[in-house]
Design brief:
This protein is mainly alpha-helical and 343 residues long. The protein contains 13 helices and five strands. The strands form two sheets. The chain has a three-stranded parallel β-sheet. Strands 4-5 form a two-stranded parallel sheet. Strand 4, helix 8 and strand 5 form a beta-alpha-beta unit. The two termini are 36 Å apart. Bound molecules: tryptophan. Tryptophan binds next to strand 1 and helix 7.
């Protein structure tokens, strides 16, 4: 792949605080891995472990989550020759750029960030004297770190969930301000890509599958555990033989994310014909298990070999730094921090 045939630079980060679940897979991981196979795209995927520190002060959890997420992406077939796959904390240029951007970013812009505003609103609701109670500088400056992630590699497309769109707009804002102040197009203005097609999976209780609702099905649990979790998915109390509505059913929704149109139509007919919940759950388990069996084996093998994962991430970091190093050199010059010998 020559640089000139690459038409777009796609970048996204994964905050390393949780264990990947079916919802992450269908909504983010699967589309990202597919996209990374397009030779006209240079993709950057990274473990946002500096971001993890904002929400999580449990080192064991951060460590485990980083390993689990890396092993998951590799087990599912991320092509690390094509995509650049790295850990944010292995790129010291990122915090350096974060500082430079912080120095041109208006505090008022950060005041408007949804996550920060939600914390303030919560304090006000709870009658706390200090509206900033519990707000760290990490939380407050979160969007600047995210801007550095993106702008460092001049990414033009950033696939994210809806909740992150504001952060991409802030990155544009900060990039524009930097370019203006230092009178050159140092940064590409990134665009959020929100795929309306991507599915939001429901969890065990029918609400959106999410770590914060504690209703997830982790991707790589054992077969036995997977079956147990599938059996826990909430259904209504209709008996076998009674027609059932597929569209409002969590089981059907999850099933649909793993089969083709024909199988989906078959299952829909089964619902109309009154398939029992036990049988429907068995069918879902079969489909999930077939889909996940091989990646699960690869995942378990990878988890046994953290040294190998480390090596993959180190070589990703090297590729990322090969770009970040010269970029920072230019930016240092731009702001007046270049070497005297280069004058
Ligand atoms: N904040 C993002 C999230 O929670 C993760 C993230 C960090 C990210 N840096 C990024 C996403 C840069 C896109 C680009 O989902």
């Amino acid at each position: 792949m020559t640089a000139s045939s690459v038409t777009s630079r796609v970048l996204t980060g994964i905050t390393t605080t949780g264990t990947p679940h079916l919802g992450n897979y269908v909504g983010a991981i699967r589309p990202a891995i597919q996209a990374s196979q397009d030779p006209s795209v240079q993709s950057y995927y990274f473990l946002a472990d500096f971001h993890a520190l904002i929400k999580c002060q449990d080192p064991q959890r951060v460590r485990e989550s980083r390993l689990e997420i890396a092993a998951t992406w590799l087990a599912l077939g991320l092509d690390t020759d094509n995509a650049i796959f790295y850990r944010q904390s292995d790129i010291p240029e990122i915090p350096e750029l974060t500082w430079m951007l912080s120095c041109v970013c208006a505090k008022g812009l950060m005041n408007r960030a949804h996550a920060y505003k939600a914390s303030v609103a919560e304090n006000e609701r709870a009658g706390n004297q200090d509206p900033d109670k519990g707000v760290t500088m990490g939380l407050f400056g979160y969007p600047v770190l995210m801007a550095a992630d993106i702008l460092m590699f001049n990414a033009n497309k950033v696939p994210v969930g809806r909740d992150q769109v504001q952060h991409i707009e802030m990155a544009r804002d900060i990039a524009g301000r930097f370019n203006h102040l230092f009178k050159s197009q140092y940064f590409t203005l990134p665009e959020a890509v929100v795929d309306e097609q991507t599915q939001v999976l429901s969890g065990l209780d029918g609400r959106k599958m999410s770590k914060s609702y504690d209703n997830t099905i982790p991707l790589f649990v054992s077969e036995k555990k997977l079956l147990k979790l599938v059996r826990k998915i909430k259904t209504n109390s209709l008996e076998p033989g009674e027609p059932k509505d597929a569209d409002s059913c969590t089981l059907f929704q999850i099933y649909s994310a793993f089969v083709d149109a024909e199988q989906r139509a078959d299952m829909r007919r089964e619902y109309e014909n009154g398939i029992g919940w036990g049988a429907a759950k068995d069918r879902l388990f079969e489909v999930l298990n077939t889909h996940l069996r091989e990646p699960r084996e690869r995942y378990n093998a990878l988890m046994e070999d953290p040294g190998y994962i480390e090596q993959v991430l180190q070589s990703g970091a090297q590729r990322a730094r090969d770009e970040a190093g010269p970029t920072m050199e230019k930016l240092r010059q731009a702001v007046g921090l270049g070497r005297f010998s280069d004058l």
